[in-house]
Write a structure and sequence with these properties.
156 residues; alpha+beta; 3-stranded antiparallel β-sheet; elongated
């Protein structure tokens, strides 16, 4: 069974990778704007991206990447009446994307989880899967399979 940390990691990844226009449209349909206090307003900065040669070699500094982060608090929104914090880090400079992602993260930790999952996360997850499949199909269409023919004069 997936623990709570893994579930949260999953929805935060979906929110961070979401198409901003689709995210804003779905968020507007949910009407989840009330009750939030901004602890850290959406701000843009840079992070160092690290890589590994071959995926498992020594780490190296690949370069810098622009990210926008935001932190919000939902007063008394927890299942036990406690405050809930929502966090978001998104690639690029879209402040509204970071704000919505942070608010959605907070709501997903409350009793509104199922509604937010069905109305926001599931459609975003489907759209992302469709984009990945389309990219895979496009790449597969250009794939060339090489093979070697054994000539008759080299018996094995």
């Amino acid at each position: 069974m997936i623990d709570e940390t893994e579930r949260r990691r999953g929805w935060m990844a979906v929110l961070a990778k979401a198409d901003p226009r689709m995210l804003q449209r779905l968020w507007a349909d949910l009407g989840g704007e009330d009750g939030f206090t901004t602890l850290r307003p959406a701000e843009t900065g840079m992070v160092m991206v690290r890589g590994r040669a071959g995926g498992d070699g020594m780490p190296f500094a690949l370069g810098e990447m622009t990210v926008t982060r935001c932190v919000v608090k939902l007063q008394g929104g927890g299942l036990d009446g406690s405050d809930v914090l929502g966090f978001a880090y998104v690639a690029g400079r879209d402040r509204r994307h970071a704000e919505i992602a942070a608010r959605a993260d907070a709501l997903l930790q409350t009793d509104r989880h199922d509604a937010i999952e069905a109305g926001l996360i599931a459609p975003l997850r489907r759209a992302q899967a469709e984009r990945r499949d389309a990219a895979r199909r496009k790449a597969a269409a250009t794939r060339v399979d090489f093979f070697t023919m054994v000539r008759g004069e080299n018996p094995r």
